Amino acid sequence: MIHPNTTIKLISETVGYGVFATAYIPEGTIVYVKDSLEQVVTPDAYLNQSKEMKDVIDKYSYMDQNGDRIISWGFC
How many domains does the chain have? Predict the structure, then answer.
């Protein structure tokens, strides 16, 4: 789950999206916790998605050390 005082914005076509604070978040605040509700999209599963779904996955996920894309359950 990501901190509620954040938003996703497009930085540039080259860089992609980034997470930005929408209000002051004190230093040391935990802003993300990976939990069991996160959706894991493997590289093979990603390749089998439509272009529209890939666009959503690209925008709302991050890639972990295994190459899986992780989608937070609270992304919307």
Answer: 1
